[in-house]
Amino acid sequence: MNTNNAEAQLARFNGWAIVSVACVLLLVVGVLAVFFGNKALKEIKKTNQRGMKLAQWGVVLGYVEIVSGVIVLTAILAITY
Q1: Exposed, middle or buried, 66 (CB in 10 Å: 0-12/13-18/19+)?
Q2: What pLDDT was estimated at residue 23?
Q3: Around Cβ 12, how many Cβ atoms within 10 Å?
Q4: Is 41 in contact with 68 (CB distance < 8 Å)?
Q5: What is the DSSP letter of 12?
Q6: How far apart are CA 39 and CA 43, in angstroms?
Q7: How far apart, in Å, do the first and last CA atoms of the chain sit?
Q8: 5-55 tens-digit pLDDT
Q9: What does the domain layout of the chain look like in residue ranges?
């Protein structure tokens, strides 16, 4: 019975919000994290699903990842050339 309850709780979360946070954790796909996070935010507002904070964190951390990647790339290019 507990597994069905846990699955029901997890099913209430928006899937795109979970994907957005997973993209951030991969440290390579910040653009996808922003895309999926924004998609999740739109769906959550329409359907009142759970996962608003997950989606917001996915978007924010996705932007942080993009900006930090640009800074690192600029630093690498400045050092090598």
Answers
A1: middle
A2: 80
A3: 10
A4: no
A5: T
A6: 6
A7: 62
A8: 655 555 578 887 888 888 877 776 788 889 989 999 999 999 888 889 989
A9: 2-80
